[in-house]
Structure formats: C-alpha cells, structure tokens
Amino acid sequence: MFIAYIDESGFSSQVDTKQPFYVLSAVIISSKYLKAMNNKLREEVSKFEIEMNFSAKSLGLGSEIKAKNCISMLKRERKALASEFAQCILNAPNLYSGAVINIIIDKSEYNKRGVLNKKKVEFKAIELLFERLSKYTSYHSTDDNDNQCICIHDENKILSDEMQSEASQLRKIGNFVTYWNEIKGSSTTTHNSLNNIADFAYSDSKNSLGIIIADFFASFLYQIITKNMEITDGIIRSLYNSCDKSRRNGVINGFGIKIYPESSQLLLPFELRKNRHFQLS
After folding, report:
1. SS3 content of the chain, % helix, strand, coil (to 5)
2. Is 150:4 a contact under the CB 8 Å cutoff?
3. For the whole model, what pTM was predicted?
4. d(CA 192, CA 170)
5. pLDDT at 226 over 90
C-alpha cells in the first residue's frame, strides 16, 4: 500500500501575472516506511526548533511549519539556516524509498487551447497526477494487492466537494490520452485504468507530516520556476533527488516533473545527464 500526500502552490484557475503557474506536488511513500520516515524527520529537524519557532515532536501531530515561512527566511539574513532546514524536509522521501511527482500547469498556455468543456486547471492537474501515481505504484509494487494508493490532499475549502467528485470519476472510469503516432501517421487514443487509486481524502496539514513535506515541494518548485528568488544549489539538489525518474534512462521530465501543456516554453533550471548528475543552466 502506498500513501500519496498532496499539496499545491499558485492556486487559482485565473491567469494573472502574480500566479502564472499552478503546481501540484505528491509525496509518495510505501506504508511500511511511513512511520520510520516521520519519526526520523522529526528527529532531524528538532535542532531547528528554537530558531525557527516550532515543535518538532508535534510536527504533523497538531502543529506545522509552512514552506512560505522558510522561504521568507531565505530572503533575509538567515539564509544558511533556512536552506539547511528545507533540505532536511526535501530529502525525506528519497531517504525512505519514496518519490515525489510534481505537475506544473502553464495557465496562460492551457487557456489558449481550443478545447470544448475544458477542465479547471486543478482538475487537469489531478488527472495528470493520478495517471503517474497509477504507473508508479504498479511498477513499485510486489503484487496486485500491494499496488493500491491512498491520496491525502491538503484541506481546500473552496474546491473540496468539486475535487472529490472529479477524483471519484477518474477512479471509476480512468482517463484517455490522445497523442500523435509517428508510425501510423495519425492520432492514437489510449485508456488508462486508475483503479489502483484506492481513495482520495482531505486532511489539515497540521495533522499530516506528509502534507507538510508536499507543501515544501510545491512551494519551492513554484519559487524556482517563477524566479521570485534565488534558491540555493543544496535545495535544488534535494528537490531533484527526491523526484521520480524514468526507470529506463533516469530522465525526470514527464515523470517527477510534468509540465503541461507541451506548448509551454517553461524551462527548468536543471537537467539530468546520463550520469544522473544535474547541472544548473
């Protein structure tokens, strides 16, 4: 059984200069490693308690620390401290055989597409996420009884009912993907069954360390792609190392980070070489 903790950044279906992108991040962890990851992370971040004003032992057990607070510190004189703390959070999935999948929607390009009955940005992002979660859990499971994934999204009072309905539809009927087939010289539509997405629920981030981690991925990735501030190399490494990658060639694009639509000109500030080291552009 897998758990996927989900959070977002850049919330809003409206296109504006302040929120040009929508980022949805999912931290995926096997249930057998979950307790160990949570306990170890609370222990690791306890050294930051006094300076960052939070309680490590109750993190995700009634209290939280937001990524935006850490980002605010990075912009001030406490950059080294905030960077080290962020790396502890971002490294956690990778250290416990987990992974992170990030969906980036370029809202301006998405709204240019001539599609009737176009989905809301948030709904398209959850569809793309479910598709990748389904493939990830199927690949990493030992048998059919082990490939189920429970999704827990940060509480969203505005969209919760609509999102629940959308998630249920996806789980029931799956999704359809149309792409250009070079061999046939025509478009091809395939169906993805998403029936291993066992459940979709909401939780307050104060009560979920997994959602707190997802908040850090969504928020820092948003800062990186909007270039709102300079992000340290250590943070980028930690974010990158935890992202899911192609089992065939280690590529991150389309796996750990999916940019949609394809027409987007967004360029990530790092790339994966054949030796699996990233390079700042």
Report:
1. 40, 25, 35
2. yes
3. 0.90
4. 10
5. no
